Amino acid sequence: MFGSYNSTRQPEACQPSSQILRDARWLADEDWQTHAQNASFGWMHMAEPVMRLYTESTDGSSIERKESALVWHFQDADTAFGSAQAKEMLDHLESVLANEPVVVKSGQYIIEVKPQGVTKGSVAQKIFESMFRKERRADFVLCVGDDRSDEDMFVMIGDSIKADVIVNNKSVFACTVGQKPSRAEYYLDDTVEVINMLENLGDLSGSEDSDS
Q1: Distance (Å, rounded) from C-alpha 21 to C-alpha 105?
Q2: What is the pTM of this model?
Q3: Around 142, how many Cα atoms within 13 Å sit in the side-chain half-sphere?
Protein backbone atom coordinates (compact mmCIF):
# COMPACT_ATOMS: atom_id res chain seq x y z
CA MET A 1 0.00 0.00 0.00
CA PHE A 2 1.23 3.47 -0.89
CA GLY A 3 -0.69 5.54 1.63
CA SER A 4 -1.02 9.16 2.64
CA TYR A 5 -1.45 10.52 6.14
CA ASN A 6 -3.95 12.99 4.75
CA SER A 7 -5.97 10.42 2.83
CA THR A 8 -6.47 6.68 2.80
CA ARG A 9 -6.96 6.52 -0.96
CA GLN A 10 -4.30 5.43 -3.42
CA PRO A 11 -2.72 8.60 -4.86
CA GLU A 12 -3.24 8.75 -8.60
CA ALA A 13 0.19 10.27 -9.09
CA CYS A 14 2.00 7.19 -7.78
CA GLN A 15 1.83 5.96 -11.39
CA PRO A 16 4.09 8.59 -13.03
CA SER A 17 4.22 8.88 -16.78
CA SER A 18 7.14 7.31 -18.62
CA GLN A 19 8.02 10.72 -20.02
CA ILE A 20 8.52 12.08 -16.52
CA LEU A 21 10.73 9.12 -15.60
CA ARG A 22 12.85 9.60 -18.72
CA ASP A 23 13.25 13.34 -18.21
CA ALA A 24 14.25 12.86 -14.56
CA ARG A 25 17.36 10.80 -15.34
CA TRP A 26 20.80 12.33 -14.84
CA LEU A 27 22.93 12.88 -17.90
CA ALA A 28 25.48 10.08 -18.18
CA ASP A 29 28.40 12.43 -18.87
CA GLU A 30 28.01 14.47 -15.67
CA ASP A 31 30.64 13.87 -12.96
CA TRP A 32 29.84 13.05 -9.33
CA GLN A 33 30.40 15.91 -6.91
CA THR A 34 31.57 15.74 -3.30
CA HIS A 35 29.37 17.82 -1.03
CA ALA A 36 31.99 18.30 1.72
CA GLN A 37 35.14 18.18 -0.37
CA ASN A 38 36.89 20.93 1.63
CA ALA A 39 36.11 19.47 5.04
CA SER A 40 38.80 18.12 7.36
CA PHE A 41 38.47 14.46 8.32
CA GLY A 42 41.11 14.21 11.03
CA TRP A 43 38.29 13.49 13.48
CA MET A 44 37.92 10.02 11.94
CA HIS A 45 41.17 8.98 13.63
CA MET A 46 39.57 9.94 16.95
CA ALA A 47 36.14 8.42 16.38
CA GLU A 48 37.08 5.10 14.80
CA PRO A 49 39.01 3.71 17.83
CA VAL A 50 35.98 4.44 20.01
CA MET A 51 33.68 2.62 17.59
CA ARG A 52 36.14 -0.27 17.34
CA LEU A 53 36.12 -0.62 21.13
CA TYR A 54 32.34 -1.04 21.17
CA THR A 55 32.37 -3.30 18.13
CA GLU A 56 34.75 -5.70 19.87
CA SER A 57 32.46 -5.91 22.89
CA THR A 58 29.15 -6.09 20.97
CA ASP A 59 28.52 -9.25 18.94
CA GLY A 60 26.67 -8.53 15.71
CA SER A 61 27.84 -4.93 15.39
CA SER A 62 30.05 -3.47 12.66
CA ILE A 63 31.64 -0.23 11.44
CA GLU A 64 30.93 1.25 8.03
CA ARG A 65 33.55 3.72 6.86
CA LYS A 66 32.25 6.16 4.26
CA GLU A 67 34.15 8.87 2.41
CA SER A 68 32.86 11.55 4.78
CA ALA A 69 31.25 9.66 7.67
CA LEU A 70 31.59 6.77 10.10
CA VAL A 71 28.57 4.62 10.94
CA TRP A 72 28.27 1.99 13.67
CA HIS A 73 25.60 -0.62 12.92
CA PHE A 74 24.03 -2.80 15.58
CA GLN A 75 20.89 -4.21 13.93
CA ASP A 76 22.28 -7.75 14.22
CA ALA A 77 23.23 -7.41 17.89
CA ASP A 78 21.10 -8.34 20.88
CA THR A 79 18.41 -5.64 20.91
CA ALA A 80 18.64 -4.62 24.57
CA PHE A 81 22.43 -4.86 24.82
CA GLY A 82 22.99 -3.17 21.46
CA SER A 83 20.73 -0.25 22.40
CA ALA A 84 22.54 0.17 25.72
CA GLN A 85 25.92 0.11 23.99
CA ALA A 86 24.71 2.62 21.41
CA LYS A 87 23.60 5.06 24.09
CA GLU A 88 26.93 4.72 25.88
CA MET A 89 28.86 5.13 22.64
CA LEU A 90 26.86 8.24 21.73
CA ASP A 91 27.86 9.91 25.00
CA HIS A 92 31.47 8.73 24.60
CA LEU A 93 31.79 10.09 21.06
CA GLU A 94 30.16 13.41 21.92
CA SER A 95 32.72 13.84 24.68
CA VAL A 96 35.73 12.85 22.57
CA LEU A 97 34.62 14.95 19.58
CA ALA A 98 33.30 17.96 21.50
CA ASN A 99 35.74 20.36 19.82
CA GLU A 100 35.54 18.85 16.34
CA PRO A 101 33.35 20.20 13.46
CA VAL A 102 31.13 17.11 13.43
CA VAL A 103 27.73 15.90 14.59
CA VAL A 104 27.08 12.60 16.34
CA LYS A 105 23.59 11.24 15.68
CA SER A 106 21.64 8.13 16.56
CA GLY A 107 19.34 6.54 14.00
CA GLN A 108 17.58 3.25 13.40
CA TYR A 109 20.15 0.76 14.77
CA ILE A 110 23.02 3.10 13.93
CA ILE A 111 25.30 5.72 15.43
CA GLU A 112 26.69 8.09 12.81
CA VAL A 113 29.44 10.71 12.91
CA LYS A 114 29.62 13.16 10.02
CA PRO A 115 30.75 16.74 9.27
CA GLN A 116 28.54 19.58 10.43
CA GLY A 117 26.21 20.96 7.78
CA VAL A 118 26.24 17.78 5.69
CA THR A 119 22.73 16.33 5.71
CA LYS A 120 20.50 14.54 3.26
CA GLY A 121 18.43 17.71 3.13
CA SER A 122 21.39 19.90 2.17
CA VAL A 123 22.41 17.44 -0.56
CA ALA A 124 18.85 17.33 -1.92
CA GLN A 125 18.76 21.13 -1.93
CA LYS A 126 22.03 21.28 -3.87
CA ILE A 127 20.72 18.85 -6.50
CA PHE A 128 17.41 20.68 -6.95
CA GLU A 129 19.08 24.09 -7.18
CA SER A 130 21.64 22.79 -9.68
CA MET A 131 18.86 21.47 -11.91
CA PHE A 132 16.97 24.75 -11.52
CA ARG A 133 20.00 26.78 -12.65
CA LYS A 134 20.24 24.57 -15.73
CA GLU A 135 16.54 25.24 -16.43
CA ARG A 136 15.69 21.57 -15.80
CA ARG A 137 13.45 21.76 -12.75
CA ALA A 138 12.70 18.37 -11.27
CA ASP A 139 9.17 17.33 -12.26
CA PHE A 140 9.26 13.87 -10.67
CA VAL A 141 10.73 13.38 -7.20
CA LEU A 142 10.57 10.20 -5.14
CA CYS A 143 12.23 10.54 -1.74
CA VAL A 144 12.05 7.43 0.49
CA GLY A 145 13.58 6.96 3.93
CA ASP A 146 13.01 5.07 7.17
CA ASP A 147 15.19 7.01 9.60
CA ARG A 148 15.08 10.24 11.58
CA SER A 149 17.99 11.51 9.50
CA ASP A 150 15.68 11.46 6.48
CA GLU A 151 13.30 14.04 7.97
CA ASP A 152 15.37 17.06 6.90
CA MET A 153 15.21 15.69 3.36
CA PHE A 154 11.40 15.54 3.52
CA VAL A 155 11.31 19.12 4.83
CA MET A 156 13.62 20.28 2.03
CA ILE A 157 11.28 18.88 -0.63
CA GLY A 158 8.42 20.93 0.76
CA ASP A 159 10.59 24.04 0.94
CA SER A 160 11.79 23.53 -2.64
CA ILE A 161 8.20 23.33 -3.88
CA LYS A 162 7.33 26.57 -2.05
CA ALA A 163 10.39 28.24 -3.59
CA ASP A 164 9.30 27.00 -7.04
CA VAL A 165 12.60 25.14 -7.45
CA ILE A 166 10.65 21.90 -8.01
CA VAL A 167 7.65 21.74 -10.31
CA ASN A 168 4.57 21.86 -8.09
CA ASN A 169 2.53 18.93 -9.39
CA LYS A 170 1.28 15.56 -8.19
CA SER A 171 4.51 13.75 -9.10
CA VAL A 172 6.50 14.77 -6.01
CA PHE A 173 6.58 12.21 -3.21
CA ALA A 174 8.18 12.34 0.22
CA CYS A 175 7.63 8.86 1.61
CA THR A 176 8.59 7.36 4.97
CA VAL A 177 8.80 3.62 5.58
CA GLY A 178 6.46 2.47 8.34
CA GLN A 179 3.46 4.26 9.81
CA LYS A 180 4.96 6.77 12.25
CA PRO A 181 5.05 10.53 12.85
CA SER A 182 6.96 12.08 9.96
CA ARG A 183 7.26 15.19 7.81
CA ALA A 184 6.71 12.94 4.80
CA GLU A 185 3.24 13.08 3.29
CA TYR A 186 3.16 9.42 2.25
CA TYR A 187 4.25 6.10 3.70
CA LEU A 188 5.01 2.54 2.67
CA ASP A 189 4.56 -0.18 5.27
CA ASP A 190 7.95 -1.88 4.92
CA THR A 191 10.99 -2.45 2.71
CA VAL A 192 9.18 -5.17 0.75
CA GLU A 193 6.70 -2.56 -0.46
CA VAL A 194 9.56 -0.18 -1.30
CA ILE A 195 11.16 -2.86 -3.51
CA ASN A 196 7.82 -3.67 -5.16
CA MET A 197 7.24 0.00 -5.94
CA LEU A 198 10.72 0.45 -7.43
CA GLU A 199 10.29 -2.68 -9.54
CA ASN A 200 6.98 -1.34 -10.85
CA LEU A 201 8.58 1.97 -11.73
CA GLY A 202 11.43 0.14 -13.46
CA ASP A 203 8.98 -1.96 -15.47
CA LEU A 204 7.09 1.18 -16.51
CA SER A 205 10.28 2.94 -17.59
CA GLY A 206 11.57 -0.17 -19.39
CA SER A 207 8.39 -0.64 -21.37
CA GLU A 208 8.57 2.94 -22.55
CA ASP A 209 12.21 2.46 -23.67
CA SER A 210 11.18 -0.62 -25.67
CA ASP A 211 8.46 1.34 -27.45
CA SER A 212 10.69 4.31 -28.31
Answers
A1: 34
A2: 0.57
A3: 16
